[in-house]
Amino acid sequence: MSEPVEKSLVLVVDDASSNIRILHNLLRERYRVIFATTGNDALEQAVRFVPDLILLDIVMPEMDGYEVCRRLKINAVTAEIPVIFITGCADAEDVVQGFNLGAVDYVTKPFRSGELLARVATPLQLRQARLELNSRSGELKILQADLEQALERNRRLVQEVDRLTQLVSGAT
Question: Domain range holding 123?
Answer without folding.
Answer: 9-131
